[in-house]
Amino acid sequence: MPDRLTSLDLTFLKAESPATPMHVGTVDIFEPPVHGPGLAEGFDYESLVALIRDRIAYVPRYRQRVQQIPGRFAGPVWVDDEEFDITFHVRRSALPRPGTHAQLLELVARIMSRRLDRARPLWEMYLVEGLQGDRFAIIAKSHQALVDGNSTVDIGQVVLDATAHPKDTPTDTWQPEHPPSALELLAGVFADATRNPTAVLELARAELAGLTGSTSVREVLGGVVGSLVAQRHAQESSLHVKTSGQRRFTTVQTDLEDYRTIRAAHGGTVNDVILAVVAGAFRSWMMTRGEGVGPTRSVRAVVPVSIRDDEDEEPTSLGSRVIASAVNLPIGENSPVMRLHQISYQTKVHKDTGRAVSARSLVGIAGFAPTTLHALAARVATTTVRPIDDVVITNVPGPQFPLYAQGAPMLASYPVVPLMPGQGLSVGVTSYDGKVYYGLNADRTAMPDLAVFAQCVTDALDELLDTTRGSRNRASRGRKKPRGTTKKAGS
């Protein structure tokens, strides 16, 4: 029998509305492939379609659609899409040459504002040509019901290789299975009820709630749908809005070495420094809006954290979990160093448990890539965010070496984290190949000044860097000159 959607998967489908599409995305920017023996001569739409066709066998869920149960008294199931058309999901777009980064961001915002077609497999991918310097972008989005990290990873990771030479893939002989009949679907419900009656009852209750509204699935989300608008934070904030169906998207690119410098000078982790940068950005941005940032003011962030299931267990694609951690960003604190120390103190609680997975371990997890980890983080955030939470921040470490798509080197990767109902901004962060990339997804109506917030991120990083200059100079003066060397004039 086909796999049944879990109660969590069903929650994402029920929570989706025109104002809150429940998909997570990525924006990857590439250079054309390098010419050479055994390398691709170029990259175009046909190349992307062929690449997906070769690799989609690794993610079979991406050829399946959601099938409802007759009467809807039980949860739906995943069935093969007999009319699967890869060219429907892999699409082509172009910017007027030479396309600017701002034009790309506007296209991303429009693509991410649209919900996925429920009658088909719940994903899309766009090749965007015409960027400056003969570059191109790949925009991918997958529904949160699709990527669970166990049976399904995000398709964005299977199209990337660690070298410019694409890996060999086995011949795909997939043939769709005929969808089960209504009688077979009902028989499957009774079989599941015999094996696990509690799970089936929970699914049926959730399905019934979506139809009657009597016991809403919103309660499964902790009152997230619609309640964030009605129940505001104790302090009025620009981050709590009436979410519209349209988005703005912008990006920030920074150097990973800057975060390491700050960490070396003030302690903590790179993740702590990133959160401190975001806290500084919120402080400056709210001040530009004329909002009060008194000494006790904070922004409550939901920050998903990957943990070990067992203390002796090594993190693997199936052995690590993602949980939600609440961090109060102290935007009322004037000193950037004190903001960092206060955040480090909060995050240290998770490290002291011995269960938090280090960034180095995350990068080495077999079968995981930043795209999948962001999807898992978004799933956790969706189900745990509460009315008092202001923003979701996902921070995923990526490989510190270049990745390739059919020989084309990836220059940048920006996550797109979905908005929760009533929230005006989500922040996704990925470190990759010596850089730290911020993807800022915002409600279009509520945040017309998203570019100002992006500039505040850069300014907050510079502010923290300025505090390390004295320590760097002291360290430099403390180094002993090697024996037998003299400083030459003009050197």
From TrEMBL:
Record-annotated O-acyltransferase WSD1-like N-terminal domain positions: 5-274
Catalytic activity, EC: 2.3.1.20
Primary enzyme class: transferase
UniProt keyword list: Acyltransferase, Glycerol metabolism, Lipid biosynthesis, Lipid metabolism, Transferase
Gene Ontology molecular function terms on file: diacylglycerol O-acyltransferase activity
Coiled coil ranges: none
InterPro entries assigned: Acyl_transf_WS/DGAT, O-acyltransferase_WSD1-like, O-acyltransferase_WSD1_C, O-acyltransferase_WSD1_N
Region (Disordered): 468-491
Pathway the protein contributes to: Glycerolipid metabolism; triacylglycerol biosynthesis; Lipid metabolism
Ranges of Basic residues composition bias in the record: 471-491
Catalytic activity: an acyl-CoA + a 1,2-diacyl-sn-glycerol = a triacyl-sn-glycerol + CoA
All residue ranges annotated as the O-acyltransferase WSD1 C-terminal domain in the record: 321-464
Domain of life: Bacteria
Family affiliation: Belongs to the long-chain O-acyltransferase family.
Protein name: Diacylglycerol O-acyltransferase
